[in-house]
Amino acid sequence: MDFFEQLKEYQGIFNDIDGDGLFIRKYADNDPRKPREEVFECPISEESREEMRRTEMEVLRKRSSNFSQGVDISENMQRIDIELMNPSTEDWNYMPLPSKAEMIPLIASIESIGLLQPLILLKQEDGTYTILCGRSRYLALCYLYNKNPLDRFKYPMCFVLDAKKVDEHFIRALIIDSNFNYRKIPQHIFIRMILERHVILKNSKMFRSESNVARELATEFNMSESSVYNYLSLSNLSEEVMTLLFEKRISLRVAGAYARVNPEVQLMILNNIDFKDVNFYFKIEFITRGRNIKTLDDVLARIKSSKDIVPQNSVVHIKLNNGLLELFMEKLVEILKEAVSKYSLAIGNGSIARIFKVKYDKALMKYLAAMNYVDQNILNKLNGRTITDVYRR
After folding, report:
1. Which of 6, 201, 226, 366 is most buried, with most CB under 10 Å away?
2. Which residues are within 8 A (CB) of 25 and not within 5 positions of it... i.e. 6 or more apart?
3. Could you tell me the CA-to-CA distances from 110 to 143, 144, 232 in Å, in that order?
4. Distances 47 to 44, 52, 344 between C-alpha atoms, Å
């Protein structure tokens, strides 16, 4: 088995680990992916209720202590057998697994220099350890031990936390913090990190107001407070729409359109729209526009009206051989002149980019113009901002 096959095998152990997230997956009735559910009612005794209450109070006590007094992660450092380690649940550590390109230098570094940063583990009652921080290092150690069974690969240095002393929210915050600066984070993961961190900070009771929480998030994620508020507006999403966003079935822009209306209306939309349209921004923007959509009848009327609408503009990406470039650009100029003639009143003294806009790599196109693959005058016309620019020689 070669390196990449073996790496894939080790990564596979993370793929089927599931658990509860702060944002629970929930599917609309109209969603084709909704699993079948059966509900069974089970009476709860007073003793069980009291035990649940005590457990909840203990959780709140630990949470308050963890966030107000902190946790000394390095208090218990020891070497742990990698065979006793297990991944954390997918909904706790939902960060993307390392790519091949990211793993190769990490493996080389551990093999030649050693493990520079200990793993952070959570000790379980059965004697096993859950990996909180260090999945990539764990994968690298597994590969290296299989290749060369040395103790330094089998028993890495680890910080071990006691499950009785740390709260789930503290653990989740630790996972987010340890991954934020590690590598490029996909947008849907970044959104989830901010929203979960927001819940964690609010539940920690360390901040008195929403503005203080937003200020802390802005500092932590190195972004402006206005950007933080834009992301936090997504907290108005229903659980069903949030599920679509986290599963990358709708875009951030579309999610923002859903967030304009209350969660109950969002669910009405999902349960009645043709589900293949849930990620069409022009339709969702039309359905959620304004403040007059409150009842099911309002939703049904908007959905019915949206069936025949089309977006005002379309985006087309074209790749072609350089031998066709000049002819293609000439045809674009003809189309541009036709557009200007047809929509001249709408354009007026404004920019023609409202109805026609061409984007390209300007440095590359300048080079191709110098190599006589395209006429610079044609590029100037396509780059024009006003009607006069289009007809200027």
Report:
1. 201
2. 239, 243, 246, 247
3. 11, 9, 39
4. 8, 9, 77
Contact of 387 with 340, CB cutoff 8 Å: yes
pLDDT band at 35 (very low <50, low <70, confident <90, very high): confident
Termini Cα distance of the chain: 65
Say which residue the tokens 């039309």 belong to.
286
Give me the helices (H) in the chain, please: 3-15, 46-69, 100-112, 135-147, 151-154, 168-180, 187-203, 210-220, 225-232, 239-246, 252-258, 263-272, 281-288, 296-306, 325-342, 344-347, 362-370, 376-382, 387-391
Contact 137, 116 (CB under 8 A): no
pLDDT tens, position by position, 188-224: 777 777 888 888 777 776 666 777 888 888 777 777 8
Supply the DSSP symbol for 297.
Answer: H
What contacts 296, CB < 8 A, 6 or more positions away?
268, 272
115-148 pLDDT, tens digit each: 888 998 989 888 999 888 888 889 899 989 998 9
CA distance 287 to 269: 8
Is the pTM of the predicted complex or chain greater than 0.90?
A: no
Q: Cα–Cα distances in Å, from 168 out to 27, 70, 214?
A: 25, 14, 22
- Contact indicator for 231, 194 with CB cutoff of 8 Å: yes
Dist. CA 54–CA 52, nearest whole Å: 5
**3-state SS, residue 29:** coil
> Rounded to whole angstroms, what are the CA distances from 272 to 256, 289, 302?
19, 17, 11
- Strand, helix or coil for residue 334: helix
Round to whole Å and give the CA distance between 275 and 53. Answer: 41
Which are the contacts of 307, defined by CB distance < 8 A and separation ≥ 6? none
